[in-house]
Design the sequence.
C-alpha cells in the first residue's frame, strides 16, 4: 500500500540508519525528509539511489517556527494535490544541544526548546488532519530526562522544570551561559517532549498513535556538534568504545530500533515510551497530566501563526 512518512533528523547518525531500514522494509513507501537547504536535496538523492526508493525533501530550518510552518504547509499542499500518497507517519528525530541556555532563535524562544519541542509540535498540529489512519507519530527523546547516574552516567544534569513560559525563553536555568545549563536545557526539553506525547495520546483522533522513543546514550552522532573541541573529540573518538558495554548504544543499533518503532515491529500503544527495543516506563516525573495540559496550552500559544 502506497503511503508517506515525513521524517526530520534523517541526515546523520541514528536517523540516517533508521531511514535506510524504513525504506528497505516498507513496500510502497514515499519517505519525505525535512532538512536544511540543499542538504535535504542531497540526502533525498542518496537515499533514493541506494535501492531505487521514492524519496523527496522539503527544506526547513527547525530553529525557525516560520520555516517549520512553511514546510508543513508545503507537505499539506502536496498531499492535497495527490503528489504524495496518504500520510501515515511522522518521525521527529532531529535534536540539538547547545553549550549554553542563552541561544535565541528568530521567534524569541530558546533554541533547544524550539528544535526539540516546538518544531515537532507544530508539525504534528499542522499535519494532524492530513494523517490517514492507522498512522504513527514517533518523537525521539532521551533517558537524560530521568536525571540520575544510572541513565545518564552523570554526564548530563537532570531536568529542571518550571513554567513553560520560562522554559521556552533564554536564561531559564542557573548560570545560563555555561555548558551545564545547556545540558539542563536539553534534558528538560526531552522531558517536555514526553509530556507532549502523553498529551497527543489523549487528544489526537483514534488511529493516530504517538510514541516516545529513547535510543539510550549514543556516542558518535552529531548531537555534540556545538560542544567544545575536547567534547566533540571525545564523542567521536573515545566514547564510541562504550558501545561495547551495556551503557551505550551504537548508531546502527539505535537506528534499527527507531525503524522498528516507526514501522510497528516494536508493538507500542499510543502514549508509550519505548526504551531502545521495548516498551517501558519513563521517569515518574514524566507522568503529570496537569503539567502536560499546561505545556500543551503553552505550545499552542507559542506556535500560533
Sequence:
Amino acid at each position: 500500500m502506497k503511503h508517506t512518512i515525513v521524517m526530520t533528523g534523517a541526515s546523520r547518525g541514528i536517523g540516517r540508519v533508521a531511514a535506510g531500514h524504513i525504506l528497505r522494509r516498507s513496500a510502497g513507501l514515499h519517505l519525505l525528509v525535512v532538512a536544511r537547504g540543499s542538504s535535504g536535496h542531497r540526502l533525498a538523492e542518496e537515499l533514493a539511489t541506494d535501492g531505487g526508493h521514492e524519496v523527496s525533501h522539503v527544506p526547513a530550518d527547525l530553529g525557525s517556527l516560520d520555516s517549520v510552518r512553511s514546510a508543513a504547509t508545503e507537505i499539506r499542499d502536496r498531499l492535497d494535490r495527490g503528489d504524495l500518497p496518504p500520510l501515515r507517519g511522522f518521525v521527529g528525530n532531529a535534536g540539538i544541544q547547545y553549550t549554553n541556555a542563552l541561544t535565541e532563535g528568530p521567534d524569541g524562544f530558546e533554541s533547544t526548546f524550539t528544535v526539540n519541542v516546538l518544531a515537532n509540535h507544530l508539525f504534528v498540529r499542522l499535519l494532524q488532519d492530513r494523517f490517514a489512519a492507522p498512522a504513527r507519530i514517533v518523537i525521539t527523546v532521551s533517558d537524560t530526562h530521568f536525571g540520575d547516574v544510572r541513565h545518564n552516567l552523570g554526564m548530563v544534569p537532570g531536568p529542571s522544570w518550571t513554567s513553560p513560559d520560562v522554559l521556552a525563553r533564554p536564561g531559564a536555568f542557573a548560570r545560563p551561559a555555561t555548558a551545564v545549563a545547556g545540558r539542563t536545557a536539553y534534558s528538560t526539553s526531552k522531558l517536555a517532549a514526553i509530556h507532549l506525547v502523553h498529551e497527543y495520546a489523549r487528544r489526537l483522533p483514534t488511529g493516530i498513535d504517538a510514541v516516545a522513543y529513547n535510543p539510550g546514550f549514543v556516542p558518535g552522532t552529531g548531537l555534540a556538534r556545538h560542544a567544545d573541541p575536547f567534547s566533540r573529540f571525545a564523542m567521536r573518538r573515545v566514547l564510541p568504545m562504550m558501545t561495547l558495554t551495556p551503557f551505550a548504544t551504537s548508531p546502527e543499533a539505535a537506528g534499527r530500533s527507531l525503524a522498528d518503532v516507526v514501522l510497528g515491529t516494536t508493538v507500542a500503544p499510543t502514549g508509550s515510551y519505548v526504551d531502545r527495543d521495548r516498551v517501558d516506563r519513563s521517569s515518574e516525573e514524566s507522568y503529570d497530566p496537569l503539567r502536560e495540559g499546561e505545556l500543551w496550552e503553552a505550545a499552542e500559544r507559542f506556535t500560533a501563526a
Notes: The chain has ten helices and eight strands. The radius of gyration is 18 Å.
